[in-house]
Design goal:
The complex is a heterodimer of chains A (about 300) and B (about 350). Helices cover about 40% and strands about 15% of the residues of chain A. Chain A is of the alpha/beta class. Chain A has two domains: about 150 residues, Rossmann fold, CATH 3.40.50.1980; about 140 residues, Nitrogenase molybdenum iron protein domain (Rossmann fold, 3-Layer(aba) Sandwich). In chain A, strands 8, 9, 10, 11, 12 and 13 form a six-stranded mixed sheet that branches. Chain A has a five-stranded parallel sheet with strand order 5-4-3-6-7. In chain A, strands 1-2 form a two-stranded antiparallel sheet. The longest helix of chain A has 24 residues. Chain A starts with a helix and ends with a helix. Chain B contains 14 helices and no strands. The chains are: A alpha/beta (about 300), B mainly alpha (about 350). The interface between A and B is medium-sized, with 31 and 36 residues.
Amino acid sequence: MTGKIISLFLCVMMLAGCGPALAEDTRVTVTDMAGREITLDAPAERVVVLQPGDAEILYAIGAGDKVVGRGAYVDWPEEALEVPSVMSGYETNLEEIIALSPQAVIMTVMSQTEEQVKALEDAGIRVIVTDAQSLEDIYTCIALLGAVVGRNDEAKELAASMRAELAGIAAEAKALGSEGKTFYYEESPLQWGLWAGGSGIFFDDLCAMMGMKNIFGDLSGHNSVSEEQVLALNPDLIFTTTMYYGEGPAPDEEIASRAGWENVSAVKNGAILFDNTSSIARPGPRVVDAAELILELLRTLAAGNNAA
Amino acid sequence: MKDRGVIKELAVLIPALGTLAALVLCVCAGSVNIPAEKVLSTVWNGIWGRPQSGAEVSIILRVRLPRVLCAMLCGSALSLSGAAMQGLLRNPLADGSTLGVASGASLGAASAILLGIRFPGVPLAGTMVTAILFAFLSLAAILALAFAMDRSLSTHTIILIGIIYTMFVSSAMSLLVTFSGEKLRSITFWTMGSFSGADYPQVLILLGTLVVCGAGLVMLSPELNAFSGGEKNAAHLGVNVKAVRFIVLVLVSVMVGVCVSVGGSVAFVGLVVPHILRRLTGPDHRVLLPACVFGGAVFLMLCDLCARTLLSPVELPVGVVTSMIGAAVFVVVFYRTRKGVR
């Protein structure tokens, strides 16, 4: 929907540009992912971006030079670390953001309150709200951010290359026998109560492209789940994005060592993937890396099967 | 004479059987449906160490049974602590949590996570030791402050300082969370409570703590009864007031510290269970305390059952269930008591 609105608008823009009598109109109107319509006088030249996935999109479409401030958790690509960081999430500090005098602030639904948005808008700053959960949302988000910074062509290219790469990875995964495999996506370890990713999140979409089935596919989003269910549903693959601070066993080792889990297929076959590159958790261009990690695991498993 | 003996035996038998029934129910029911006879035969074979295999065996013996046992033992320990505190302080609102011991233990456990205190090879040992240590330190701090203000250690002073201390500790906790960055997620566990991931080493630690500290408290029942007439009265009855108070507070803080390190802060158990049971057993601690062992076990096992199954496959934090059921029951009991309905 949003994509359509943007493309419709772009057509109007192009037509307007062709008209010889019209003065050059640089205005950009977008509908952000909270459904708000926002008009910028011109594509933004100074942007503060709070969420890592959004920042990664900006850098990927060649708009890194327009980023004048980044959320504290933005750490990719490396050059982003040279940009001043501001507090994000619950600790969002409006003064810090306004001091950077951006034309636009890009934040997620989760990290902002209506009061914060209003305060920024009162300061003359446009606020663009993103909310990328599914894979399609990520493409929508890329088009949206492309329009905001005036990098529409690059955004289209990025999305197209991502689609192509993901399709290629999915085909290769299927050739390795990924179809019909079940997986469990763990987001919080047993010690603090299991949390699992369900349907409607991009990681689930990536696996679905490979023909794999989420054991908690009936649940949408992120849920605290029962350990008994994981054992009963017996996943073929386990993915974990649990935080790891280098103390004690790594999350994949910890899962393998859990009492009662020794009979789970994924544990028996060593099919546990721990992502410490943060690509699995971030809705941005690096979802391709996440898909690549899954493919890598499938390759290792297939090689093991052939050897045995 | 003979009849009274039979009644006494029955009085012990009924709660014991009730607890056993609740235990069986909680092991048979769960997020994954497994027929009761399969569950019971698996447990029976497991007790005798017969080799068994399969996903259901893992679910029953490795996940469900240790979890139910942990809930059972924590329920007993928390209820006993609550009843003992209420008796000792002659205050119906006293509990491990109002004294600040539970919050202190949580803070200790949370700091252990943040600082990465752990003993190699023994998961959770770092947080457990720190939680118990902080429970002790909290107690020492509260008692020292109370003693400095009021040498007789009057109950009101202790309760008041306990509440102030709890506030102080929760703000310290918020401070920790603010500085913890992404480690914050595991800290929320200490404030919500969960028996997810319970295992047999935890069961053994809880059992040992309950046997030692629980027996100690039950043995002190006559002294606790003497406290009900006031501290001076207790002294007149020949009770060494300060020694008894000290021992009770130490036993309580050990039990609360261990429970918190296993299941996080599970609210309301130590408050609600003794209140309900007191209406059945009367105020005599020689009856009330043993009743709390059974009543607390049943209460927390059933609450955890709700947490595990109500929204299956989604799980609730057990603290949510205890607080909701607990608060509702508490209001009813309180209302009836105030209305003079006995």
